[in-house]
């Protein structure tokens, strides 16, 4: 069955100015990702993976080219419209977890629900934390949680709004092998349950191998 | 927007629980407590000074007129909750049997005086007692000189016009007796009800009427405006400067010092707010980027931050104002016995002003960084090196400059003064920023040749370039304000004390006949008196200026016309007194004695106007004398010594018939000694200035204590604010210190490194602050307070040391937990 295209990039290029002159970090990348698909973006450090992910998620804008996310052309809308789209259709998991240190686990998970103005945020967030195995840790602050637990909270936060696309940037990069494996397991389970499209950037071959498709980047281009 | 507000409040509550906002709250709280604490002290002392100064008018407002003042003003005053009273004064002969004496009759109504007290005694020149009443109808309170001249005592009767009144008390002092020596004749008080019966009020009699009003400062100010618009042309409002220049100059200078202290408070508050707003934004950059990643719009990020900041600011400022109130009570109770007993109760204005100032400063200083916070790109979640885009210069600094300028204008109420302060502030900021830049450049270059700890300290300075410069600017500004107050306070107090030494002359003698002056001096000396100045005095009128009749001349101002055309007291002297300074030309040399020359006071020079070499012609008892202006003198009129607008060299007017006037230090051991002088020289008018001196000394003493009190409270507040400001930069240092310790650095190495960094910042800020404060003090002393400025080279050293010490203590406080607790704990806390 033909999948609906949920994420598409056409001729994406990102250039930056540096003391050595203009650098091209991403060059002429085009791709299409279908709804519910799981895709791994791999490549050496400095290949441009994170920059491509940032442009596909609307966190950064390309120098040239176009991006469509869930039918919306990201490159034609302003920052606030992109933020609104992220609030409703996109989830993120980062290598450094990026939890808000002054908020408890529950409050961190409630945050995207509150930002998009949804009611029953506490109840939904509590259920999501229970789903990731942290029902007993809802009142803990990030500094009171282990790395694995923090990433579980981050996974719960990314999934709680049932996004169309989940972007993960090295989600196991800060974790030991065993913890990384369990996080990886959880990530794919949540993805399957919600039918979310997953695009993850990783160096981890095992993690990449669990995805349906693998895109490899080298020197800013897909190979 | 509702979501943003709700979310702002929710995140505020959550962040508050986590303790992350405590530093921001504390800095704002301390700043507002300091500002309003100083504000309360300034306000109470200022009102006490005004009240005391009002005593020389015997009221807050005094309307004077040559005609009867109608009841409409008193009615209007009563409607505005003001008290009022009446005084009518005229010259009349008082009789006791065959003896007569010209006297100033003051008919006073119930309620007089509205400010200050009347002092009376049971015998002439006796020990004074305060009374809270006026003479009853049928009574008369003559002063000691009048009693002595009439050889009368308490119980006798005296005739004034057509009635006879019984002496029930001796008048020693009235609050509004003034110091202008206008009232050369002795004085007496009678009841207003007896005035008509005296028959002295006739068409053409020269009566001076005064209506007195007193009440709250606001009511008085409103009534004064109303009165100014509704009074008759012949009626005028009398002010303190006219009634007593000594009291006026002391209160004006003290008031200006208090104003400076308020400005210092505002600057300190600005420093604290600028530093904490910076810290708030730095701490929230990652959160803002994350919120945007999770879908928050720019407006929502801004609204969340604004909600947080406004809530914190509101609570911190209200709590700070309350703390300021408590602190001022504590401070003033420390000064009890000197000033607190007489202070009016605290008003609510300083609290409101503290709140408004803090909120205005917060808006000016926090808005630009908050706008930056809202514009931080979401990509920062992936690349932490990406910060918010830079704001344009106008947007980045404009609101802060505007807020400060508005506050300075609000405090000073004078556009020229405000522009001067803003310009001075801009120069000081520029110098501090330049010094900061130099320090980081030098630190970057010299660190190579040092030990590990020193290298770490200097490396930090160079690496945190922007932070180091901001810290030097903020600390330097705070220190400048404190050092400036230190210098000005010292100069002001020295000047006050020099103007009115303990051995200032306390007796004045006028109308000493030329032929009897040596006898008079001998009798005075025999009684222990010491004549400090004795000058001849003749009456004369200026008739021509450069050959042009004064009557035909057009003057620039009514004052100039008045000074040129009125009959003048003239004198001659070989010596210029220490209270006179030649501003142009030169004082008479020995060769010039007998030459047709004249030295003119600067008031006359400016208001007529005159230049050196102008020829002035005088009519002195029918004889015409022409003299060239050979010098101009600045006269210190509040020196309590005889002084003249016009002075001639000896040998020119010596033949003219005149009298002598003198001042003396005289402490009669018993009233009879003064009575003896009066008896032997009945024509000499004797003025006992002790009461006036006591009044001026009391005001100056209060002003000194006020200045000290306000200075100390500002200093204390300043130190606390600066400590809080340094605390606001502690996070990064704590983290680095823990990191260094993890890498094996000893506690000593880390501590020395931190102290080197802080000491360098403190010394640099202190030195530039000393330079800025010295320059500022010069201009303020010269042009605002009109007192001499003495440069103090030690200030540079003390400024640098104070800066270093203050910042080191603050730095140590900020990093000590990172030095004592295990590094892992600090690193985990982030």
Notes on the structure:
With 223 residues, chain A is an alpha/beta fold. Chain A is 35% helix and 29% strand. Chain A has helices at 49-56, 79-89, 105-115, 121-131, 147-159, 177-194, 205-209, and strands at 5-18, 21-34, 38-43, 64-69, 72-73, 90-93, 165-169, 197-201, 213-218, 221-222. Chain A is globular and about 50 Å long. The mean pLDDT of chain A is 89. Chain A is built from 7 helices and 10 strands. By secondary structure, chain B is an alpha+beta fold. Chain B contains 23 helices and 23 strands. In chain B, the strands form 3 sheets. A 6-stranded mixed beta barrel of chain B has the order 2-3-10-6-8-7. Chain B has a 6-stranded mixed barrel with strand order 14-16-21-18-20-19. In chain B, strand 2 and strand 3 form a beta hairpin. Chain B is elongated and about 110 Å long. The two termini of chain B are 32 Å apart. The mean pLDDT of chain B is 80.
- Helix count of chain B equals 23
Radius of gyration of chain A: 17 Å
What structural class should be given to the helix and strand makeup of chain B?
alpha+beta
Helix content of chain A: 25-40%
The multimeric state of the shown protein is heterodimer
Can you summarize the main beta sheet of chain A? 6 strands, mixed
The ordered H/E elements of chain A are: EEEHEEHEHHHEHEHEE
Straight-line N-to-C gap of chain A: 26 Å
Sketch the major β-sheet of chain B. 6 strands, mixed, barrel
Please report the total strand number of chain B as a whole number.
Answer: 23
Task: Provide the gyration radius of chain B in Å.
Answer: 34 Å
Measured between the Cα atoms of the first and last residue of chain B, the distance is: 32 Å
Strand content of chain B: 15-25%
Which descriptor suits the 3D outline of chain A? globular
């Amino acid at each position: 069955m033909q999948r609906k295209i949920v994420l598409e990039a056409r001729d994406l290029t990102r250039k930056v100015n540096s003391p050595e002159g203009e650098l091209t970090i991403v060059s002429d990348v085009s791709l299409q990702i279908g709804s519910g698909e799981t895709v791994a973006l791999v490549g050496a450090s400095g290949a441009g993976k994170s920059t491509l992910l940032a442009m596909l998620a609307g966190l950064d804008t390309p120098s040239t080219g176009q991006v469509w996310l869930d039918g919306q052309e990201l490159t034609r809308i302003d920052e606030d419209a992109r933020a609104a789209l992220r609030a409703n259709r996109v989830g993120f998991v980062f290598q450094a977890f990026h939890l808000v240190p002054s908020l408890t686990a529950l409050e961190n998970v409630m945050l995207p629900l509150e930002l998009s103005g949804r009611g029953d945020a506490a109840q939904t967030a509590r259920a999501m934390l229970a789903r990731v195995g942290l029902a007993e840790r809802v009142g803990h602050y990030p500094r009171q949680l282990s790395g694995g637990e923090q990433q579980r909270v981050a996974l719960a936060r990314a999934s709680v709004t049932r996004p169309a696309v989940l972007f993960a940037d090295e989600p196991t990069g800060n974790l030991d092998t065993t913890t990384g494996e369990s996080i990886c397991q959880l990530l794919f389970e949540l993805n399957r349950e919600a039918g979310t499209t997953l695009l993850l950037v990783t160096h981890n071959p095992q993690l990449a191998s669990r995805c349906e498709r693998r895109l490899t980047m080298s020197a800013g281009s897909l190979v | 927007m509702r979501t943003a507000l709700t979310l702002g409040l929710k995140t505020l509550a959550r962040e508050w629980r986590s303790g992350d906002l405590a530093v921001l709250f504390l800095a704002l709280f301390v700043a507002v407590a300091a500002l309003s604490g100083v504000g309360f002290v300034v306000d109470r002392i200022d009102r006490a000074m005004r009240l005391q100064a009002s005593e020389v008018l015997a009221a807050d407002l005094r309307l004077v007129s040559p005609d009867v003042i109608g009841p409409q003003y008193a009615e209007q005053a009563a409607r505005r909750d003001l008290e009022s009273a009446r005084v009518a004064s005229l010259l009349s002969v008082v009789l006791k049997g065959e003896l007569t004496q010209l006297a100033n009759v003051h008919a006073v109504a119930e309620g007089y005086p509205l400010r200050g007290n009347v002092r009376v005694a049971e015998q002439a020149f006796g020990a004074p007692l305060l009374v809270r009443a006026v003479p009853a109808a049928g009574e008369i309170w003559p002063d000691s000189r009048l009693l002595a001249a009439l050889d009368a005592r308490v119980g006798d009767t005296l005739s004034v016009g057509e009635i006879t009144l019984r002496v029930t008390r001796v008048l020693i002092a009235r609050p509004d007796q003034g110091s202008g020596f206008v009232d050369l004749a002795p004085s007496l008080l009678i009841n207003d009800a007896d005035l008509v019966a005296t028959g002295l009020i006739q068409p053409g009699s020269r009566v001076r009427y005064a209506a007195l009003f007193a009440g709250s400062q606001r009511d008085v100010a409103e009534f004064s405006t109303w009165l100014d618009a509704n009074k008759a042309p012949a009626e005028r409002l009398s002010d303190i400067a006219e009634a007593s220049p000594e009291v006026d100059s002391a209160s004006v200078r003290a008031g200006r010092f208090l104003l400076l202290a308020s400005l210092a408070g505002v600057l300190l508050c600005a420093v604290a707010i600028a530093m904490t707003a910076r810290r708030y934004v730095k701490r929230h950059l990652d959160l803002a980027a994350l919120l945007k990643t999770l879908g928050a719009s720019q407006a929502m990020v801004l609204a969340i931050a604004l909600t947080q900041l406004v809530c914190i600011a509101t609570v911190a400022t209200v709590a700070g104002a309350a703390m300021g109130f408590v602190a001022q009570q504590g401070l003033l109770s420390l000064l009890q016995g000197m000033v607190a007993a007489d202070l009016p109760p605290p008003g609510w204005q300083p609290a409101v002003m503290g709140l408004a100032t803090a909120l205005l400063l917060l808006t000016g200083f926090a808005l630009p960084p908050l706008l930056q916070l809202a514009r931080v790109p979401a990509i920062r979640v992936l690349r932490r090196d990406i910060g918010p885009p830079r704001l344009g210069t106008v947007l980045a600094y404009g609101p802060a400059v505007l807020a400060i300028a508005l506050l300075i204008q609000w405090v000073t109420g004078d556009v020229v003064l405000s522009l001067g302060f803003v310009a001075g502030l801009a120069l000081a900021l520029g110098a501090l920023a330049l010094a900061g830049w130099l320090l980081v450049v030098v630190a970057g270059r010299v660190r190579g040749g040092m030990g590990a700890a020193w290298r770490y300290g200097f490396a930090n300075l160079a690496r945190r370039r922007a932070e180091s410069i901001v810290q030097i600017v903020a600390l330097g500004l705070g220190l400048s304000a404190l050092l400036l107050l230190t210098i000005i306070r010292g100069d002001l107090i020295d000047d006050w004390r020099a103007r009115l030494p303990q051995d200032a002359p306390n007796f004045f003698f006028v109308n000493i006949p030329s032929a009897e002056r040596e006898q008079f001096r001998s009798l005075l000396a025999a009684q222990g008196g010491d004549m400090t100045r004795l000058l001849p005095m003749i009456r004369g009128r200026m008739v021509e200026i450069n050959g042009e009749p004064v009557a035909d001349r057009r003057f620039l101002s009514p004052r100039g016309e008045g000074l040129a055309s009125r009959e003048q007291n003239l004198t001659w002297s070989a010596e210029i007194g220490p209270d006179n300074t030649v501003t142009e030309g030169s004082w008479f040399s020995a060769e010039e004695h007998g030459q047709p020359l004249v030295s003119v006071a600067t008031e006359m020079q400016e208001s007529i106007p005159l230049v050196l070499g102008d020829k002035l012609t005088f009519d002195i008892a029918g004889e015409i004398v022409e003299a060239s202006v050979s010098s101009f003198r600045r006269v210190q009129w509040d020196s309590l010594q005889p002084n003249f607008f016009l002075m001639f060299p000896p040998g020119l007017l010596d033949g003219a018939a005149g009298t002598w006037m003198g001042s003396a230090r005289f402490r009669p051991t018993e009233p009879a000694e003064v009575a003896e002088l009066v008896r032997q020289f009945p024509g000499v008018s004797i003025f006992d200035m002790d009461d006036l001196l006591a009044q001026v000394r009391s005001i100056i003493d209060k002003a000194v204590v006020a200045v000290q009190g306000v200075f100390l409270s500002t200093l204390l507040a300043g130190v606390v604010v600066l400590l809080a400001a340094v605390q606001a930069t502690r996070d990064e240092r704590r983290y680095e210190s823990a990191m260094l310790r993890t890498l094996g650095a000893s506690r000593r190495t880390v501590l020395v490194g931190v102290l080197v960094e802080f000491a360098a910042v403190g010394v640099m800020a202190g030195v530039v602050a000393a330079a800025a404060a010295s320059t500022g003090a010069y201009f303020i002393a010269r042009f605002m307070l009109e007192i001499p400025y003495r440069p103090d080279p030690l200030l540079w050293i003390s400024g640098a040391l104070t800066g270093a010490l203050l910042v080191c203590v603050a730095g140590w406080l900020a990093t000590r937990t990172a030095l004592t607790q295990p590094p892992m704990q600090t690193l985990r806390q982030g």
